[in-house]
């Protein structure tokens, strides 16, 4: 099927006189996870990873993705003639240089202007300049092949109430307007779904696992335009918006409406999220700045923090019930990874304000745990028994917050020294980063290595970043702060600030043998102010025991043991009031002192 | 005097219809330390720091420098109306945005095209575009005011022999030619003195403390042109060059000669070191790449490593003799910081192949140690007594290598708990970074924080990078690898590789009280290769005890004590064969086990 689609695409290439097309994994809003309508790269390659770019030429089909997805690519694309190009830096546009090198002068390359940001187009133009390569819009071409393409999402939109958001839309818009004034501009244009959902306190289900809304938004000093299908709102929502001078205009009209802005106006926007089709249509002056909403949204208010902590309690309770079920059930039968994922979901479903999973749960048994973004399919899932190692990375969307937790557990038998040593090094790394105190102004790339130090000592490492921001009933990977080894990503280059929620999730993976990862969400706060400035640190808010069966005690220092015991004391104290007696006993055992 | 010069400069501003001039601290070769001829910024501001940019407008004189130099600026410029703008990132061109903001549209800004790299000019042009600001060359203007400007250096040039360089000029040039061929270019143009000195195995004394030669070099596939005054070479040197197809052409003719290259030719060069005057004159196509020589030079060959180790022995012997002298002398009298620096120099002078200091020694007593790049003047120096704390950062140029070492010592009385705790945290940081094993591909910014961790815990920090590359009878600060908190500098963004020499020098400074710094040079090497790749680590090669009087034993872990004892065992074993009996006894005491 994929081969047929590629065949058709090649025919279109020749029909439109194109020498190549670039098909990214994103949508017109630079989303990481996209609605079915925008899964163009998956349609033509079969590859379902959240990051990756397909390049199709008459004589070659090539896909760029990063180390998180190498094993998944092999699995999903083995039947097709697609060459894998391994990116050393996730999201780095390495394919552009490759393409420019391989094309003749005056070649024509097709790209969907909607799927490329202004910044990305600038980059392609810069690299292709010397060969005078033309870039042609192919919005229509894809539609001609993909005739049964799903339409854009059109679910009803909910207002995210103040009891969960903690700040009114009016207040948020005023902050944006202040930025417009100080920036001597007329408008602020937002393209990213997560920023728009935050700004307008709206939620829907346009993107799998993520309660976002397909929209653009143009904030002015007098009034605001929200480009989003009107019929998706209740009349009371529209009335409230109207009082705030927010006009709702259908999504399809966005570009036409934006075109009408006078050429004398100045629009602040984020060059990395503005798509080229919009940029191309608007004749006003753009002022490119990092999005103010990205910055504001990353710092959680008291309501959001209280919500997040409440979600940790709910996740902790669900995981406790789930792991007790798993333990008992594995003594009776083997269970597929797929069933385990579904069962875990069902325990979370019982919790208040549950809205769904925050991403496809990763349930990886033995070697499957080494496939970093593994998703067990109903048919292909491995059968889990009461032995060996199991990695579970899962999370939920609740109305009061978003969760993300990884635990790696030992199911029975005697763990090897290699597994215990590795697991302990991962744990030591987690503790080192979580316990770190660092000056304000520190970015993720500066401190990511604290989580790797103990693995590096053993000649080990992990091929992914150490953590990311997380939304409040929003995106599970929320820009910008986090931890990673390279500066080119927002998790590497963004300064940590108090009141942010970030994951810390070191791991280690041995192909065909095991995957280990330990992940908590931590809350950052101001720890002290000295003559040297303000110092920030983290406090873990995730509440679930870390499997002691895999720990080699002798490798932990006294202070690491102290951390371990303190964390488990907190977990027990917080979760036990919400559990029944049997559950409390199980948890007590899991939270024993080391 | 400075005020008069600024007065004259302002008159020239109005004569040439300039709205501002930017005066950097560099020369046409983007050197960090420059010949007297190029000390234009110092001439107009009195500020002698190695980094800093002066901006003069009719109504304001402003200087940008980084935290290493804040105290020095206050000291040197207090008598003049110069506003200090504190840079958070060393060398970041923050003044450009400030200037663009403060100027009217169509303003004219004077810059000496020779003193700005192509990359810097691009940056200024980009920021000044929206105001249509014109950039005018002021090479002549400065000369009109600075009538007694020193001429360019013209010392004899020595050939750096194979017994020290370890690689012939022929071999080095062949590597450059290989790069020209693979880059499909015709020439490789070098502007940096350190790169040219390395490539041609030549040394002189054009720059204070640095044995470099004022030159440009153009390497072609058939022949090579070295733009450097011919009369500076011996006839045998010229004959040798001639055999290698190296033509020596006078420095003054460089731009005129470079202009003659056909416009169809392609020249590879480093955009950050090519000055704008040359760029402007040459009509050929430039291909901008990081300099291949910078990369090659940073990795030392066996001869250079052996030389560096030999220099460590010599430095260790000189420092031992010096500290014994200091101890004895302080029991009799107080001694000025200036005299101490001179005396230290005299002990190094007795060592084989000694060529001079590698930078102005920093001898900072008590609070003077907190001025990071402090230089005691003959008159203003503090008197050192047999009490309290003394920081000495010094180094030498030997024909077989360049050295750089800092020790902080306690001279008598009882050190406070604060000083001991701080000193111990600095030491712990040094050990943490030096003992780190990390994967190939790791850049300085990723691991710099290991040297800060223990200070951060106490709410302390230091306002400088943690280390830099060092040359082989070359620059004491050699690009590119090192450790720093920001990615914008080469020490932050360059990957560490085996066989590099790098300093590790954490510190902590309390204004008017004390300065603490511990600095060793470390050699990097491949430690192990695993399924996760190659792992690199460091070995210290500097040989001199670290003062135990300032250590709070109880704060050191067992493994830190083990490191301390192992290091001192090595220091004693290596130095003692070169010392007399009294000296050996002194050293034995200093190298006792903790």
Question: How is this fold's topology laid out?
Answer:
Two copies of one chain form a homodimer.
Chain A: H1 2-15, E1 20-23, H2 40-45, E2 53-57, E3 60-66, H3 70-77, E4 83-87, H4 94-102, E5 108-111, H5 118-128, E6 134-137, H6 139-145, E7 158-159, H7 162-165, H8 169-182, E8 187-190, H9 193-200, E9 202-203, E10 216-220, E11 224-227, H10 235-243, E12 246-249, H11 254-259, E13 266-269, H12 276-281, E14 285-288, H13 292-298, H14 302-330, E15 335-336, H15 337-349, E16 354-357, E17 362-365, E18 383-384, E19 389-394, E20 396-398, E21 401-402, E22 405-410, H16 417-434, E23 437-439, H17 444-447, H18 453-457, E24 467-469, E25 478-483, H19 490-493, E26 501-504, E27 507-510, E28 514-517, E29 520-530, E30 533-540, H20 558-575, H21 581-590
Parallel strand pairs in A: 1-5, 3-4, 5-6, 8-13, 11-12, 13-14
Antiparallel strand pairs in A: 1-2, 2-3, 7-9, 8-10, 10-11, 15-18, 16-20, 17-19, 19-22, 20-21, 23-30, 24-25, 26-29, 27-28, 29-30
Helix pairs in contact in A: 14-15
